[in-house]
Design goal:
Elements lengths: L10 H26 L3 E9 L13 E8 L5 E10 L5 E3 L11 E2 L5 E7 L8 E8 L4 E5 L2 H18 L1
Antiparallel strand pairs: 1-2, 2-6, 3-4, 3-5, 3-7, 7-8
């Protein structure tokens, strides 16, 4: 004879199962949304020599600013600017206008480089780098924490001297 099989599942067990499953689902969805957006990383290198590139002289040293898309969504990078310490305006990098630079950053091609002749700009006087995307969103990379403090003290000193 076959015995009758009975399974008893309490309401609290079902509630806990639902709560755990919903929490895991929420965490996965939040991670997917966070991962899906475009996230920009800016890297700065000085004393770079460019080899085998006809647009750049291999004898000169350049400043290289790399813009890297670490997200999944493609993003269009329009221009890169430098803010110098004790300068009123920005220095727009000329590679913002050239056609050989990759403008749309995707998962397959996540990096774009901006080069600037180092003889024209003192790398130690750069306060921060400003990159602007196609929607107008601005990404800032400060180069030196102590440099920004020095600039802040300089501004405070100039405000007190004007009074």
């Amino acid at each position: 004879m076959i015995k009758e099989l009975s399974i008893n599942i309490s309401a609290t067990a079902v509630a806990w199962y639902g709560a755990i499953l919903a929490t895991i689902s929420f965490i996965y969805s939040a991670y997917s949304v966070w991962r899906d957006k475009a996230r920009i990383k800016i890297e700065f290198k000085k004393d770079v020599q460019v080899m085998n590139m006809p647009l750049y002289d291999s004898k000169n040293k350049y400043i290289n600013i790399s813009v890297i898309n670490r997200g999944r969504r493609p993003i269009r990078i329009e221009k890169a600017l430098l803010k110098m310490v004790n300068a009123k305006g920005f220095s727009l990098l000329s590679d913002s206008f050239v056609e050989h630079r990759r403008k749309i950053l995707t998962e397959e091609h996540p990096c774009s480089d901006f080069l600037c002749l180092q003889d024209d700009i003192n790398p130690d006087k750069i306060w921060y780098i400003l990159v602007i995307d196609g929607t107008g969103k601005k990404y800032i990379k400060y180069l030196d924490f102590f440099g920004s403090l020095e600039h802040l003290l300089f501004l405070i000193k100039n405000i007190y001297e004007k009074k």
